[in-house]
Amino acid sequence: MKLYEFMGKELFKKYGIPVPQGLVASTPEEAGRAAAEMGEVVLKSQILTGKRGKAGGIKFACNPEEAVAEAKQLLGMELRGFKVEKILVEKKIAIDQELYLAITVDGSARQPVILASAEGGMDIEEVPEEKIVKKLVDVTIGVQPYMARDIAWLLGLSGEMAKQAAKIITALYRVFKENDAELVEINPLVVSGNRLLAADAKVTIDDEALYRQPELPRVEEKTETEKKAHALGLSYVELDGDIAIMANGAGITMATLDIIQHYGGRPANFLDAGGGAGVETTARALEILLATNPKVIFINIFGGITRCDDVANAFVQVKEKQDIPVPVVIRLVGTNEELGVKILKEHGIEAYRTMDEAARKAVELARTS
């Protein structure tokens, strides 16, 4: 379960991690009152996804009037599939340096790992490996002061800044451990004058441990499209690409996402139609994909319980009911494969036999669309 930024910062404050002064607003008037109290402010859309700034979800205001106007623009808008219902209004701070700090689980080592970098304010995946500090944590002893000081030194901090960083690192581990978190992240952790501040907060709690965390808020994470898919019994997650994916089974769906990325494409979603999806469910799944306005739809079916002819009939059914304005790449292999391919061919649709060939075609079409 992901927490909104303002919830993460409330949690940080409980553990002594300093954050900018801020107030949550649900109306433009509340944003204006917050600006009247704080002066120059930043208004941050509260949605459960990153890259808000690039999507227009972060605005600045110099006075209450500007804050009201910007809040009117933000509240109610849709960003990356999420409707903005709250904004965090924070006092604008001077940023002298941006750092990165996070704690998550290293699956191969089966231990918590602290990740830190002097290259904050950007996606950690884009930071070169040699610029990332990684320290595994022994859960029997936790984060000892010497480890926190060592990480602060490796970030290039010294003196009072290093002391503040060490305290934040120790406190962040307590947030991680005591709240059964899968991830706690501060990006950026900013140097502002003579202090360090958590300018952002990302906290993800282990769903299986929520029963042990009655004091934590419960957050509904699904977008409207994800809710529709869930109601149909489909496993669906929105992504930020332009190639819509449908496959039958979690493993093949993940493999499809991987091979699309391997060829330089960008998946728009994860949609597992399940091992026994019939014509109606498959047709509804296709309608969901079309509603996301992708450049290409890639259907990858390995027929077992789900028969290839059922998938072919479902696609034909959707095609006859509504216009499909984007190219569709279909790969069919398995149960009733020949019949499925024949049904599609009768309607002028080519089916591919290998995932590699189909994926390359989908990426090529997305690039030229």
Automatic annotation (TrEMBL):
Pathway: Carbohydrate metabolism; tricarboxylic acid cycle; succinate from succinyl-CoA (ligase route): step 1/1
A single Gene Ontology CC term: succinate-CoA ligase complex
Keyword Magnesium on entry: yes
Gene3D superfamilies: ATP-grasp fold, A domain, ATP-grasp fold, B domain, Succinyl-CoA synthetase domains
Domain ATP-grasp span(s) in chain numbering: 9-216
Subunit-level organization: Heterotetramer of two alpha and two beta subunits.
Free-text remark on how the cofactor is bound: Binds 1 Mg(2+) ion per subunit.
Superkingdom classification of source: Bacteria
UniProt-annotated binding residues for substrate: 248, 304-306
Alphabetical list of InterPro entries matching this protein: ATP-grasp (IPR011761), ATP-grasp_succ-CoA_synth-type (IPR013650), ATP_grasp_subdomain_1 (IPR013815), Succ-CoA_synthase_bsu_CS (IPR017866), SUCC_ACL_C (IPR005811), Succ_CoA_ligase-like_bsu (IPR005809), Succinyl-CoA_synth-like (IPR016102)
Similarity-based family: Belongs to the succinate/malate CoA ligase beta subunit family.
Bilayer-spanning residue ranges: none
Enzyme Commission identifier(s): 6.2.1.5
Annotated positions binding Mg(2+): 187, 200
Annotated residues for binding of ATP: 44, 90, 93, 98
Source species: Calderihabitans maritimus
Biological role: Succinyl-CoA synthetase functions in the citric acid cycle (TCA), coupling the hydrolysis of succinyl-CoA to the synthesis of either ATP or GTP and thus represents the only step of substrate-level phosphorylation in the TCA. The beta subunit provides nucleotide specificity of the enzyme and binds the substrate succinate, while the binding sites for coenzyme A and phosphate are found in the alpha subunit.
Pfam families with a match to the protein in the record: ATP-grasp_2, Ligase_CoA
Enzyme class: ligase
Record-given protein name: Succinate--CoA ligase [ADP-forming] subunit beta
GO biological process: succinyl-CoA metabolic process; tricarboxylic acid cycle
GO MF term (any one): ATP binding
Listed cofactors: Mg(2+)
Gene that this sequence comes from: sucC
Catalytic activity: succinate + ATP + CoA = succinyl-CoA + ADP + phosphate; GTP + succinate + CoA = succinyl-CoA + GDP + phosphate
Keywords on record: ATP-binding, Ligase, Magnesium, Metal-binding, Nucleotide-binding, Tricarboxylic acid cycle
